[in-house]
Structure formats: structure tokens, C-alpha cells
Amino acid sequence: MLDFAGKRWWYLSVSIVLFLASAGALGLWGLKAGIEFTSGSSFTLEFTEQTVSQSDLRQAMHDLDHPEARIQGAGSNTYIIRTSELENAPSLDSAAGPTPPGEIDAIEAALRARFGEFTREDFSTVSGTVSSEIARYATFAVFAAAVAILLYVWVMFRQLPKPWRYGTCAIVALVHDSFIILGLFAVLGEFRNTEVDTAFITAILTVIGFSVHDTIVVFDRIRETVSNDPYVPFEEAVNASMTETLARSINTSLVVVFTVLAMMLIGGETIRNFLLVLLVGIVAGTYSSIGVASQLLVVWENGDIGKFWRRLRGAAQEQDVAAEAV
Amino acid sequence: MRSTTTVLLFLFVAALTTFSVIVVWPSSPGRYLPGDFWPAGKGIKIGDWERETMRLGLDLRGGSYLVLQANPPADYQGDLDQAMDGAKDVVERRVNEFGVSEAEIQKTSGNRLTVQVPGLSLNDAQNLIGKTAALQFMTYNDNTELVPATGVIDGQTIAMTGAHLKNNTFAERSGTTYAVVFETTGLGSRLLEQITTRAVQYPSSDARNFLVVMLDGEVLSEAAVQAVITDQGRITGQSSFSAANNLSKQLNAGALPIPLEIIQAKEVSATLGEDSVLDSVKAGEVGLLAVMLFMILFYRLPGVLASAALLVYTSVTLMVFKVWPVTLTLSGIAAFVLSIGIAVDANVLIFERMKEELRRGRTLSAAIDIGFARAWSSIRDSNVSTLITCLILYWFGSQFGASLVQGFALTLAIGVGISMFSAITVTRTFLKMVLGTPLAKSHFLFNAEEVKRTKPAGRAARATGE
Q1: For A214-227, what is each residue's pLDDT tens digit?
Q2: pLDDT confidence tier of residue A320, bands split at 50, 70 and 90
Q3: Which whole-number Å values give the CA distances from B461 to A156, B237, B352, B357, B420, in the listed order?
Q4: What residues in B contact A73, CB-CB < 8 Å?
Q5: Residues 409-448 of B with CB under 8 A from A
Q6: Which of A112, A170, B159, B362 is the residue whose CA sits 20 to 30 A from B400?
Q7: Residues 212-271, chain A: which have Cβ within 8 Å of B?
Q8: Interface ipTM
Q9: Collapsing DSSP states into helix, strand and coil, what is residue B299?
Q10: Is the entire prediction scored with pTM above 0.90?
Q11: Contact criterion met (CB < 8 Å) for B282 and A267
């Protein structure tokens, strides 16, 4: 049997540091909204001299400092390009008028040098396709789901003492996993200009689903161990349960990690960020079941935090006494 | 050892899988599978009802691309920008009503709307979107037929339409129910005064007392007229705030006098890029093979059976997606990858339990039953909590029109439901089919031979059947 619970502060410290760092990065830099949420520019190009592939064009736009550009085929050798708002583009509200020279001309010149002649069929300023409110709604939904999960786990663990703790710890693990991803993308947004799009939102939802699923499987084992023999010390019961479910936790995560890694290595580059969220989230989700959710149960059961405060207060009182003595 | 039930279940699973594979088989297999020798699939067709192709979203397959030009009348007074928002809502409503989720609608400079819809032919898309929204006020005549509500202004008979509404309709609480408050334009208030004066003289049991609001030929609201209404009215008795809010949105959208004209229509490819999508499909196939290989190496015979169950799972899930039909997008794929993980997880849970039971010296048949029974509570609790999450996400998605969240929840719920069936029924049936054969005698094939380390020699020997 491996002693997980004995080293609980090691596990928790890793998580607390990561969590605080993520919350800090998120607070400091925030997330960069992708072009789906913001207004931008859209134009259609028909290449007349050479055959241009979608990936070549994507690479070209990348080199032109527009990695966010979305390139969509629209007939033979014709592409619709949607970018963030280009400089000197006509505003969305004004009627279409003559366009003053702007960034689009620089882009055109560079593309002409690279791919030969083309005709630009149109140029317009477009609104976002997805209301940025979607992120808020998704957050509400996750909160509601968390409450429902809490209640469900409470009911299903009702034969154990203090059943509400299980759901609460599962939710803490969920919040932990989401924050690590949000933090990572705040960092990537700041240093690599990585943007957050709707795919990011679904990936986060996926990670949340995985996190809860994984935690509940581990908790289920604790429930079984505790109900089989209520007199085993709680720490030992948790250790036994985690040792028994370790193979399963690792195997299941490996399976998903394989799939995601395969897609990351040979899959299309437009979904890399999406897969990165899944990858990090699944690793975090597996870790948090063992290192956060279960350890918190033990901490709670032992009243560690109370002890910690008492000790801290004890130390403070001693200092007071010392101060008086001086 | 094999009961009739097991054999029947096995035949059922085999038949279901064959059916699913036939239905799911792509009509252009070269797009997804390596090599050119695959026959083309035809999907399923029963009478008028057919599913030839999987409905893929804009991000994976592309669709129809339309540019709509708003032509406001020369004397247009209102806020054009707001009117464009209204037009956008109308288009969105039509598209959603048709069951096409995940459409993309953008306001574009020059009073245009750019619309992309997945899974519709260019013609269908043009027919669906191109017509002008018509919000009409109707009343019943003496023969209880629905006719346009009209008033006479300056000797001219004018039908009341959305053009006579201001688009500042809103919803509010009214006692225990909710109400929608609307305002009419100058001309509208005179029309409505005449219409309601006529209606209010009938008792509320008479159909002629009712004022009906229709949008695109569909009844939005039918309300008894309680008093004469001029420039401001209330439609009361809405059961919930969201119902009232929806109605107010629809009235706002219908208060749209601008006709839209299609100025551009073409087919477009996947927004994620065709090349990128195809690479990802191939990668997904490789990933699935890697998962199977891993399970076979780690769990041996049960791993082989679980891989077979995974194939059953994948084909049945895709079949449901196609027949439903679910518009499959990247978010759907994420849900699908997660549900594969969940399906594998259920198998892993059962096998780990079985292995423990085998090591304790139980017979294979007993180990299978106990393994399933023990693993059931974790499978149930983890999956039910996922299903609860799906339900809430779906509900939220539909409340706030976040079709992305809704699509994700739907695909995940379907995946989780089928994964429970796959883990509990399919894998178990496969294992029971193996029971009577010589394969079942070898503990090596079940990766459970470590029993010797934990048990006394004699019992271990018996346990392994030597």
C-alpha cells in the first residue's frame, strides 16, 4: 500500500502553487478573445497565377503577423480570409465607401509577391460570429452543474458519515483543473499571443467532465473501503483505495492522452490549442483526483486546518507573551 | 456455460454493429480512409427519410455561404444598426427552426449580413433564408377564420404588421406571471385602436375577441383583448420569464421593415481548413488504434474483447449521430473523445476488479459476475454525474441560445449513454461467449497469474486450474 495521505501536504502544495500562479496570471493578463468574439475584417481572394493551397496561405498569413486568420476555401483557388480588424478598415456601422489605404494593401502586396497575381473580390468589416456572452453563460452552466453534482454525490454517499464533503472536494478539484488551464492560456496569451475561441470553451467543458468523472471513481472506492470496515482509520482507507484505483486512473488517462497526443502530432494544426487544453486538463484532472480531492478529504477529516490555525495562533500568543516580557 | 440469453445478446450486438457500420459508412470513403479501394457507402433510406451523409458542422465540412444585402426604404427613419440586429435575429431563428445548429451569422459593413449554414444545399439555404420576415397581426372573422387585422386610415384599409411596432418591446413580471410590453408607431396606434375597439366588444369566450400575432406563418401569441390599446399594450399571462422574453425578442425581430436580398451565394469549405480536418481524422484513427493496442498489451484477452467492444461503441455512436441527426462539430468531437475515454474507463474498471477476484482464487465465471457487480457503482455514479452535467449544459445552451454548448452536451450525453451499454452489455456478453472455450482456462490471457505471490502455493495452483 502506498502512503498517499501521509504526504498530503506535498501533493496539496504543488496544487496550491499552481492554482495561485494560474489565478495570478489570469488576474494579471486575462485571456485574449479570439476573432470569433470580436469584429474583424473579411476579404475574398481569387488566385489567378498559381494554385495556392490552404495551408500555404495559412502559413503566409502567419508570417504576416496574422496567425489568427481563418482561411476557408470558396471554390477553385478562391479563399475567404477572416482576420482581426485590420488597420484603416472602414467601420462596421458606416455605409460602404471607398477604402483608404490601410493594412490590407500591405497584406496584398506581400501575398502578391509570394503567390503571384490574384483578384480581391470584396473587403468588409464584419461583426463577431459568437457573442462573447457565451463564456458567461457557460460559466453559469458550470456553476449550476457543480451544484447538481454536489447534491448527487451527497445522496449517493449518504450511508457514509459527512457525505457532503465528497461532493465539495470533487468540486474543488474541478475548479483547480479549470483554473490551471485558464492560467496556462493567460500565460500563452501574453507571451505567444494565443487566443481563446469557442473550441477552447468546449475543451474546458470536456476537462470538467473528465475531472468529475475521475474523482468520483476514486471516491467510490473510498466509499466501498469505508463501508466494508468502518473502523479502519480514514487515512488508511484513503491510501488503500488510491492504491487500488491507481492502475485504473493511470490507464484511463493514458488512453485519452494517447488519442490526444496522436491528434496533436499528426492532426491538423488548426486544432492544436484545443488539443493542448485537453492534454493539460486530463493530466491535471487525473492528478487532482489523487492529489487534491482525496487529500482534501483527509485534511478535512483530520481537522488539519484547525490544527494549523491553532498552532499559528499558539505561536502568535507566545510572541505576544515574549513581547510583554521585553 | 453459455446461456441462451448470452447467445441472443451476442447476436443482437452483432446485428446492431453490422447495421451501424452499413449506415455510417461514408459516401466518400477516400476522404477518411487510406487507399482508394473502399466501396462508397449509401447511408440509410426509408421512403422519403434518408441519411446519406453525416451532418458535419461548418468547422469540419463547410456549407453554404450567403451574403444578404439590406435595402432600407429611402425614407427609413429608425436606427439602421438596430434593424440589422433584428434582421440577424430573424435569420438566426429561421436557421435554428430548421434544425440546423451551429450556423454562423455576421453583421457586415454596408448593411449586409454574412450567413454560413452547414449541411444544406445552396438552393435550400437560399430558400430558407432569402424570404422577408413577416410579422402579422391577425383576428378571427365571423366564420372563425384567421384574417389579417385591419384598420381604415384616411379611407384606406391597412393591415397591421411588424412595421407598425417599435422595436423596444420588453418582458416584465406581472403578478405571478409575466407580460410582454410593446409600443406602436404613430400609424400603428391608430390601427390598433380600431382593431381592439372592435375586438373588445366580444366576450373572451368568443374567438373574435382574440388578437393573434404570427411570424413567418407561425402563431407566436394568441391573446384575449381586454381593453382598447393605442400606443402601448401588454400581452399578459406568459408562464415564465424566458417565454415572455422570447416573445418580446420575436416581436422586436418582426418589427423589421427592411427586405433582405441575397447578393452572393457559394459553397465554402471547412473553417478549420480541409487539410487540417483530414489530417485530424487520420490522427483520430491512429489514436483509436493506439488505445486498442494498449488495452490488448495490458489486459490481453479481455483487452481484445474490450477493443472489439470499442469498435461496436464507435460505430453505434456514429450511427446515432447520423440518424438523429446531430450536427457534428469540433465540440462534438471533443465530447466524442471524452466519451471514448469513459467507455474505455468502464472496461478498465471492470477488468481491474475481475483481476482482483481471479487473484483471490475465484473461477472466471464468478470473477466476471463479481467484477461487473463491484464496478457498477463507480460506473453508475461517474456516468450519472456526467449526464447531469450534460442536462444542465443543454438546458443552459437552449435558454441562452448557446448552440455550441448545447451541441457539446447532446453529443456527450449520447456518447455516455451508449458507453454504459457498451461496457455493461457488450463487453460482458463477449466475455461470457469466451467462457466455454479453452481460451478461458489460461490465466496468462487474463494477466492474473501473479496470484502465486499473494496466496499460499496450494491454493494458487488450484486457483489457476493446474
Answers
A1: 899 899 989 988 88
A2: low
A3: 40, 77, 21, 15, 36
A4: 62, 268-270, 274
A5: 412
A6: A170
A7: 212-214, 216-217, 220-221, 223-224, 244-245, 247-248, 251-252, 254-256, 258-271
A8: 0.82
A9: helix
A10: no
A11: yes
